[in-house]
Design brief:
Layout lengths: L1 H35 L1 E4 L3 E4 L4 H42 L4 H9 L6 H11 L7 H6 L13 H12 L1 H12 L3 H9 L4 H29 L3 H7 L6 H10 L4 H26 L1 H9 L1
Antiparallel strand pairs: 1-2
Length: about 290
Amino acid sequence: MHRLRAALAPYFLILPGGLWLAIFFVIPAVFMLSLSLQTGDVVTGFTPTWSFSNYTHAISLYHTQLIRSLLYGLAATVIAIVLAYPMAYWIAFHGGARKSTYLLLMLLPFFVSFVLRTTAWSFLLSDNGVLLGPLKAIGLLPEDFHILATAPAVILGLTYNWLPFMVLPIYLALDRVDHRVVEAGRDLYAGKAAIFGKIILPLSLPGVFAGVIMTFVPASSDFVNAQVLGGTANTMIGNVIQSQYFVASNYPIASVLSFTLMALLLIGIFAYARALGTKEIMEAAAR
């Protein structure tokens, strides 16, 4: 009996997580896949017809928004790494006793609603707002210059809104770096660049890996920033899915686009993990 309990203990431990995944991921994914292969409308109802042509039809119509979403998400992720790494590095190595204070200050704006933060950026970036207005008044920018309703405005909004999801995992990885290892590098007359490239950066890769996933996935599927900051010329696939679900009530096409986006993101994540080498990353983190 004791051996049986010992053998079953690991399965009981993963049971809550497994149930969570089954209820909130597997079942909805199966339902979404089933709905994507149906035909009909909200009046007559939707019928399972194994209509794979839904996929070719939806992708041919909205491939531009799909590609644009992935590019915007990638750009926001790269910019977030460039901004987040120095920030996390400074807090981890120079924050001293005020590390928690600096992290709280960084997170403080994010206690405000996501939509309100994005709307605030639309006021800041407006043609005669507090940023562009004074620059136009003194002649540094032409009168017809604008940022709103452009791709940079959407990428800026995505970067800002998902920046903490990049900073926090990188900070946690850097904070775990054993300072004695860094001191050992200095004792061996290694320069700052060599210490960073051969010690700190490899040990921080698990944080970068987690930050990229936590930033790229929600940024690529976001629709609020494109709607508030991008205008009609910068529509992302999230806007199309939202419109198909709640405006057109075309559930099969919305499911096709949702399932396609999820599949592309999963393929991208697995390719990224394989290229970066998760095994080496975990081994570096365990040292």
